[in-house]
Q: What sequence folds into this?
């Protein structure tokens, strides 16, 4: 295997590992094509460290004559040190880590090699499909249809092969609409609100350009979305100024004159680099070792992370309000429609739809709104907060989503069926994983690399009986009501379970949570086994 | 407040708006009136106000969105007239009420006919009864409870629980008549070998005679927490051999090599106190080390909380919330108090006796000893044990509740007022957040305690010290807050409590791990309040019921079968310590349970 080219020294003895939450340990370090392993010489049990090289965000080395220290900063925010005897060995190891941790080729990544004993690759990949969603919502079949216009990904490379669109538009018209929307992302349905038959659509921006181009089919499509109703909303995740400026580069927005029944609402949401820099600042503040932690709150504020959360939650709240309270259909887009658009449509669905708050429902939602909808995970999650590499397309939009869900979880401790450890797990997996789920940037790429036949599906694994228990919320009590988040800065909290996870105190609280979970299930088991009157839901 | 008033009444007519107020026994209507409540969140709301000798009650006249206020008069700090008969503008004539519990209230009245004169005068009179020769409501109420909360704390019983007296420590009644130290309790634990004459000589050298006495003893290593006031060193640097000897006796009793004296104050303040005759222990105290804990005084704390109120009421600071919060320094003060208490607890659990004082030894000292005891002794983390802790370290040792809160007193600008006890409860809340299974009580108890800190409905927090309480027959003439609490204890219980005796809890006192107690400080703002609070409470109640059911089952199983199945004996029941990892630095396991 060609990985070996990059491994000049595979094993080093007498290495000292200093990692958070553990005392320093001396043992053997081993580099493989995908992993960094460390184990105590005495114990032949499981290694103390088994780290996917993909998890490594940055390394720093400090050399002296006879030894060297490599500091490894991971995408899961852990930082640890390896004291390696022998300068050459140390340089070799460092080199291997640096090279192997950012291998570019998808097909070389670990998920293609990960073969757990208890599952085989024949199992069906994923939880849902547009066909399935469409099949479940028969009551809308008179106005909507399933289109395979994108079956070969030629109409929109970042869309799945099938999508749900208004019935009145044929595939030829859809192709025309696709040409009028950035990235070919013509408006597709992503959510039916059963209570009032309103829908959420999402798309890329219209390519009106400087000379205010129009597209008859696009206007027709949106008109068809409205049906009998005479008003809909477009939530544009850019400020109106940004939307105006976008026209200069060929983009644009739906003008009042061409889309008279649609009312545009602009909500400026940061994305891309601004978001990545916010994450970097936040993690920096969280790692501030200065003794008195002077000005911690100011630093937290300056990172702006919590204000990004506030914007995301309040925009999602606005979207849900339009649909649930005011009874209107809504189209969401920004420019590409692959980041903030997905963020707020996902959050709005969690706010409104109790099904999205169950474990299966939530994972299905992520699959539909992030994987199938073409959030470019590979680009966005290439690096995390520590990397010195030149930033390209990195942006922690998905992490922001998970944090927003965590805020909901915090504000509505009973309403979500999954536990917050699921969010933590997803935050890890998105950046480095044994599973193929978060590989590639869209469905087409996954298809090209045969991800669905040659890797295992994370969501399936999380739902296995052995795992799912761990991810259920013991306090869960389903409610049909919408859960309207409070977005006041006083109601938002730092997601300490993620950002401070390597501090002992957080580990302790996690243990206490586990204890609580065990308690509840024990009480339930004993009492319910005897069919007593006390009921335990969920 | 309590469930005396149904919060969702069915269609009351305008006339009968106030008909559904259920008054406490002994509570009398004083006046009611049509009024406009200028709600900072909903704007002006028309309705009716009722003032009794206990509360101010307001209810809006429109049904669709009922606005209701139910404020104990004790929570009022200041009542002022707003605008005059000739003021222009809508709702510019009325009353402005400042409360002690993080809110203000504004009411507008009709400008004609001096319509506010009577209500202002009556409110002023009943909100500040002591300034008008009236009794506090606690002396008027006729409430009866199944349990007598005054019996929760019996000093001798508490000493016995700690294993006292023993061959090193004796119980003295030197202060039985409060003539030894009028702000101390009547029973004290002092070194066995110190005679009463010694104590009297030490008393001359300690501010207000508050000599070093035992608060808590570690069962296993016999290390003690001793509390007192500052030594009267003065500018001239006076010494007192009896005081020096006395502290050395305390040190020797469990062979502590160096007695640690924690002076809660910042170093400079301790020095400055010399000018007024006070000071701190100098080098003449051989075998002792002095540590300053840098906790600011009551005035700094009062101003800090005032700043916090400014940014949360009526409008919460939005754009720069975190830096504004930082500039109040409230969390920083909480951090210093907690980290001081951690240092005390750490010394004691490693076998070293400590002395804790500040200036008078009734504010910061009470915070430090009670928090350290909460960390060290799991008994204080139970519902009843916590009541004992408050009764003992705060009430009996003369935290000046009357002066700090200003019960029934119109002098709102009194410099003696300070939220020291609120800050203590905040610290306890921080600990319950960090150790969700270690406390038998829940947040509702802490909120209830703070409600009644001001309400004057119970005798518990009245007066400055035990001697004053005895003088006014407090225990026979008023009801204890613990009577209420222990008569409906189920609503104050934490379903996830799993007692682990012997575990020392060290909270993390770092800014990153402290949170603002939003559900207390910002509880009046409907936009901040989490909307699902009540289902959570309901769920917790169900879980408590489930837990009780479980325990009952477990007991039955154990009765019918003396060999419990291995599965059950390892299950995390609330009565057996659960197998959590001990590797974490957060706990220290002592081998003998208390």
A:
């Amino acid at each position: 295997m060609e990985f070996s080219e990059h491994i000049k020294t595979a094993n080093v003895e007498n290495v000292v590992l200093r990692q958070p939450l553990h005392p320093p340990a001396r043992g053997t370090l081993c580099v493989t094509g995908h992993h960094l392993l460390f184990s105590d010489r005495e114990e032949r049990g499981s290694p103390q460290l088994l780290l996917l090289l993909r998890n490594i965000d940055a390394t720093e080395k400090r050399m002296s004559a006879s030894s060297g220290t490599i500091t490894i900063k991971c995408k899961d925010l852990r930082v640890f040190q390896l004291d390696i005897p022998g300068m050459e060995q140390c340089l070799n190891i460092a080199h291997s880590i640096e090279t192997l941790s950012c291998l570019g080729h998808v097909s070389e990544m670990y998920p293609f090699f990960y073969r757990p004993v208890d599952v085989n690759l024949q199992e069906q990949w994923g939880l849902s499909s547009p066909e399935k969603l469409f099949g479940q919502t028969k009551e809308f079949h008179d106005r909507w249809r399933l289109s395979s216009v994108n079956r070969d990904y030629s109409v929109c490379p970042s869309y799945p092969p099938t999508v749900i669109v208004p019935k009145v538009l044929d595939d030829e018209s859809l192709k025309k609409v696709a040409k009028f929307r950035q990235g070919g992302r013509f408006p597709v349905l992503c959510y039916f609100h059963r209570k009032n038959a309103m829908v959420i659509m999402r798309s890329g921006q219209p390519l009106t350009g400087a000379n205010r181009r129009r597209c008859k089919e696009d206007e027709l499509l949106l008109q068809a979305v409205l049906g009998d109703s005479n008003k809909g909303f477009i939530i544009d995740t850019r400020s109106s100024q940004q939307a105006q400026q976008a026209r200069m580069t060929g983009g644009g927005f739906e003008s009042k004159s061409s889309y008279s029944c649609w009312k545009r609402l602009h909500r400026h949401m940061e994305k891309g680099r601004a978001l990545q820099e916010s994450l970097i600042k936040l993690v920096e503040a969280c790692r501030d070792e200065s003794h008195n932690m002077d000005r911690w709150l100011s630093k937290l504020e300056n990172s702006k992370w919590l204000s990004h959360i506030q914007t995301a939650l309040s925009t999602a709240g606005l979207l849900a309000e339009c649909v649930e309270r005011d009874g209107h259909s809504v189209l969401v887009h920004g420019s590409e429609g692959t980041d903030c658009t997905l963020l707020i449509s996902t959050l709005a669905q969690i706010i409104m739809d109790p099904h999205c708050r169950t474990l299966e429902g939530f994972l299905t939602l992520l699959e539909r709104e992030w994987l199938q909808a073409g959030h470019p995970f590979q680009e966005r999650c290439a690096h995390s907060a520590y990397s010195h590499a030149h930033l390209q397309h990195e942006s922690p939009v998905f992490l922001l989503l998970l944090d927003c869900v965590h805020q909901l979880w915090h504000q509505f401790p009973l309403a979500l069926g999954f536990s917050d450890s699921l969010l933590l797990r997803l935050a890890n997996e998105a950046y480095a994983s044994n599973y193929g789920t978060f590989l590639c940037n869209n469905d087409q790429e996954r298809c090209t690399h045969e991800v669905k036949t040659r890797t295992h599906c994370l969501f399936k694994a999380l739902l296995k009986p052995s795992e799912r228990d761990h991810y259920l919320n013991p306090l869960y009590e389903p409610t049909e009501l919408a859960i309207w988040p409070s977005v006041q800065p006083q109601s938002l909290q730092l997601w300490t379970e993620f950002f401070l996870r390597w501090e002992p105190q957080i580990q302790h609280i996690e243990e206490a949570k586990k204890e609580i979970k065990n308690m509840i299930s024990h009480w339930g088991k004993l009492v319910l086994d005897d069919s007593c009157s006390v009921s335990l839901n969920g | 407040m309590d469930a005396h008033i149904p919060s969702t009444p069915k269609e009351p007519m305008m006339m009968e708006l106030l008909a559904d107020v259920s008054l406490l026994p002994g509570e009398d209507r004083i006046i009611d009136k049509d009024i406009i409540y200028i709600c900072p969140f909903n704007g002006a709301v028309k309705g009716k106000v009722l003032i009794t000798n206990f509360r101010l009650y307001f209810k809006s006249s429109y049904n669709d969105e009922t606005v209701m206020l139910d404020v104990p008069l004790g929570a009022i700090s200041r009542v002022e007239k707003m605008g005059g008969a000739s003021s222009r503008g809508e709702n510019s004539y009325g009353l402005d009420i400042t409360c002690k519990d993080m809110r203000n209230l504004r009411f507008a009245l009709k400008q004609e006919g001096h319509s506010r004169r009577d209500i202002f005068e009556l409110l002023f009179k009943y909100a500040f009864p002591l300034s008008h020769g009236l009794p506090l409501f606690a002396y008027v109420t006729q409430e009866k409870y199944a349990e007598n909360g005054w019996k929760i704390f019996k000093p001798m019983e508490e000493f016995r629980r700690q294993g006292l007296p023993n061959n090193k420590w004796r119980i003295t009644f030197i202060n039985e008549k409060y003539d030894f130290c009028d702000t101390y309790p009547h029973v004290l634990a002092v070194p066995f070998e110190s005679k009463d004459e010694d104590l009297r000589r030490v008393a001359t050298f300690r501010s207000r005679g508050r000599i070093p006495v035992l608060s808590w003893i570690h069962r296993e290593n016999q290390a003690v927490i001793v509390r007192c006031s500052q030594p009267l060193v003065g500018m001239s640097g006076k010494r007192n051999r009896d005081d020096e000897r006395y502290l050395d006796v305390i040190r020797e009793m469990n062979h502590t090599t160096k007695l640690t004296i924690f002076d809660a104050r910042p170093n400079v303040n301790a020095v400055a106190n010399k000018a007024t005759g006070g000071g701190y222990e100098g080098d003449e105290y051989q075998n002792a080390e002095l540590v300053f804990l840098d906790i600011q005084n009551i005035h700094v704390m009062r101003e800090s909380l005032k700043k916090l109120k400014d940014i949360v009421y009526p409008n919460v600071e939005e754009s720069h919330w975190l830096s504004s919060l930082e500039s109040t320094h409230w969390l920083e003060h909480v951090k210093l108090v907690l980290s001081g208490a951690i240092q005390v607890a750490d010394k004691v659990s490693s076998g070293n006796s400590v002395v804790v004082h500040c200036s008078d030894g009734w504010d910061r000292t009470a915070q430090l000893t009670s928090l350290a005891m909460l960390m060290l002794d799991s008994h204080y983390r139970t519902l009843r044990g916590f009541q004992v802790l408050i009764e003992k370290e705060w009430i009996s040792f003369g935290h000046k509740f009357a002066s700090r809160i200003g019960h029934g007193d119109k002098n709102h600008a009194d410099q003696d007022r300070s939220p020291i006890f609120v800050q203590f409860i905040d610290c306890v809340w921080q600990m319950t957040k960090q150790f969700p299974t270690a406390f038998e009580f829940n947040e509702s108890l802490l909120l209830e305690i703070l409600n009644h800190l001001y309400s004057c409905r119970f005798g518990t927090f009245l007066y400055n010290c035990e001697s004053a309480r005895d003088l006014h027959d407090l225990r026979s003439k008023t009801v204890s807050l613990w009577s209420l609490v222990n008569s409906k204890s189920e609503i104050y219980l934490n379903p996830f409590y799993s007692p682990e005796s012997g575990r020392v809890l060290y909270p993390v006192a770092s800014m990153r791990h402290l949170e603002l107690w939003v559900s207390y400080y910002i509880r009046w703002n409907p936009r901040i309040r989490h909307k699902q609070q009540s289902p959570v409470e309901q769920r917790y109640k169900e879980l408590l019921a489930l837990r009780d059911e479980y325990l009952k089952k477990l007991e039955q199983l154990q009765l019918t079968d003396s060999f419990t199945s291995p599965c059950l004996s390892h299950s995390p029941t609330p009565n057996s310590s659960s197998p959590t990892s001990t590797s974490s630095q957060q706990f220290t396991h002592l081998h003998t349970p208390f």
About this structure: The first strand of chain A starts at residue 11 and ends at 18. Confidence is low (pLDDT under 50) at residues 531-538 of chain A. Residues 286 and 500 of chain A are 7 Å apart (CA to CA).
